[in-house]
Amino acid sequence: MKLQKIVSRLQELHPKEIDLSLDRILNLCKKLDNPQDKIKAISVVGTNGKYSTIQAMYAILKKAGFNCNIYTSPHIRKINERFVFNNKELNDEELTNLLEKVEKANNNEPITFFEILTAAYFFKAADYPENINLIETGLFHRFDATNILNQNLASVVTSIGLDHLDWLPKDEQTVEKIIFEKTTKLLNSNIVVAKQSSNEITEHIKKTIKENKSKRLFFNQDYSYSENENNFFYYEDEFGGIKLPKPNVNGQFQLENISTAIATLRIIKEININNEHIKDGITKIESIARLQEITEGKLKDLVRENRLLVDGSHNPLGAKVLNNYLENLDCKKHIILGMMANKDHQKYISYFNEIETLTTIDIPNQPNAIAGEDLKNKLNNVKNVQYKEDIFEAIKSIPVKKNDLILITGSLYLAGEVLNLN
To answer: In this predicted model, what pLDDT tens digit does every residue of 22-40 receive, in sequence order?
Structure first.
């Protein structure tokens, strides 16, 4: 209760949820003795795959005996998820104490919620100067609150696509503009560029960072992987090849993210990992709401022997990757969909082929979500589309048969609500 009270107070310090500027967080961090200058960080920017890449690096680093701090956003089930220190999520009391200290230092000055949370993360991270910090940058990076580091160990550029376009001027809502915002202010250290959805995007990233003095690695040029039918895959870079077991997470995109994680950790001289750390780590990745299979709980009881997956994909690029996974499954697929109002709903659903049924729902506790009934009306060209008010009614209404799969997707906020309800 105390934690929720301070969270509510911090959310009222600025009239806007997002206000792209670095002045406020720089001023606050100066009051906190610039903690961001005292940490070792790997920064992860991009549109899709940031969280999964961080979780892959985290799993490998833990097996190598490293202590990590992790900052990601948004949270899925509870705000504590954003604050991991020494390989452990802060409990309610610890997080309350941290936020109270930073709130006091801020002295009621205007600052966005994300900015003050980021300052709090840096403040706590400075207590662990030897830890590896895995930091997910938000929105467009150039004016993101995490972009106040003066140095880092590496910058990872995950897959870039169209998202958050409502934060760009109408005449600049292009992938080229997004690439500019995400990559022009990368630090001089190491840059690892993940697999992109097209060669054109990769080439544009190259042009944008050509003046950057970092060592640069590109997927399929400097590192790559190949799959094998015998339940393993093969990773290769300048340091040699590794035969690896299939990871414990679903989807080919996870192999891409894991490969990027491996390339990043192997290129950083300050980090010493070996093949066994990698082999063991990638079979113990903890990934919430990224093609996560629900194997027990209230919702699983409703579907019984049918598979139930939840995925937080919410943009066209995410839908494309998700459909690639579904196409490899020999079963009928039923989708339950809830989305935020500012997303491209028609384009998102257009990437899914051969859907048996589509059920739209409301996202609870999210005033910025599109109403499920309105979403159904926007997608009325999809066959077998219906609206149900909540997730329980949606699942019960689907005419599943043996071996059918139900996928809940469209929003990380929906994923969090579903996991909490389960």
So the answer is: 999 999 999 999 999 999 9
